[in-house]
Write a structure and sequence with these properties.
By secondary structure, this protein is α+β, with helices and mostly antiparallel strands. Helix content is 40%, strand content 14%.
Amino acid sequence: MTTTTIAPRIIGTNSTIPEDAAIFLTDYASYNDGSQFEFGHWVKLNQFANADELNAYITKHFQNADKKSPLGCFSPREEIMITDFEGFPSAFYDECMNFEQLFEYFERAYSCGYNAEIVEAFANLGNYKVEDIDTFFDALEESYSGEFSSDEDFAQDMAEQCGLLEEKPAWPYTCINWRHAAQELMYDYYKQDGHYFRCI
């Protein structure tokens, strides 16, 4: 079974949106008719400046589909049905998505100063709902502590940042057990995919 891919006629791309962010667009009337793949297709979200442009594209796409291949009883295609997605957190996915909230997320993720891997790691912790955009990004900004290969490396870096290693004391203080130090430090931090976040 083949699907039709219709690229939106928009000049340029939206650099605030990842290249892989996309939705598979169809509609409930076509789904109920069994013809959802005739005009169903992947839509790259970075082709749109905002949610209004995407919604306008969807409306026009449905109108064109109705002209080319009317459904039985001439039922219009008007209720969107998103059957798949990629390139953004699953919390935003729904068959009838809120595109305004998703575009707001893309804007915040782009302007927050952290790359997508860090934002995704923080989202995967599950401590904050990513769809509560302001709270999520405020917490990310306040808690992100860096990327490290181990808890021990993280503990040593924290000790250095706090100036605890500047004066080199004598033995036995020079024999630091970084594993034990890291265990105590991690009571106040979360780790996800090598990224460290302070509990707030």
